[in-house]
Amino acid sequence: MRKLWLLVGEGLLALMLCVPHTGLTQPASDELHKLQQDMEAIKAGQKQMLNDLQEIKKLLSSRGDERSPIRDINTTLHVAEAFSQGDPKATLTLVEFTDYP
């Protein structure tokens, strides 16, 4: 049994010495340069998205109160002959959902 453990231990030691340590190697300089270029491209894309977002915010903030989606509109709706249930003088709230595709 002792010989078996010794044989297994020697096999593991030989395996550890023969297998290259890929996690410890550093990337080649051209790979590092490509990664840096990719990072710069990502940063440029993020900056462009932030600029676009700021432009959208400016466009939305320049909308006046007349274009505001939240406003009170008081009007009279005539439904004299329509079927109804409940108090005829009740207040009606209409919500328009126009943002859905």
- Using DSSP, what is the number of strands? 0
Describe the sheet with the most strands: none
- What is the molecular shape? elongated
Average of per-residue pLDDT values: 78
Task: Name the structural class.
Answer: mainly alpha
Terminal residue distance: 74 Å
For the CA atoms, what is the radius of gyration?
A: 36 Å
**What portion of the residues fall into strands of 2 or more residues?**
under 5%
Give helix % range: 40-55%
- Could you list the spans in which at least 5 consecutive residues all have pLDDT below 50? none
Instruction: Give the topology string: H per helix, E per strand.
Output: HH
Q: What's the number of helices?
A: 2
Structure description:
This protein has 101 residues and is mainly α. The chain has 2 helices and no strands. The mean pLDDT is 78.
What topology emerges from the helices and strands here?
Layout (H helix, E strand, L loop, with lengths): L1 H17 L10 H33 L40
Core attributes:
101 residues
Compact description:
With 101 residues, the protein is mainly alpha-helical. It is 50% helix and 0% strand.
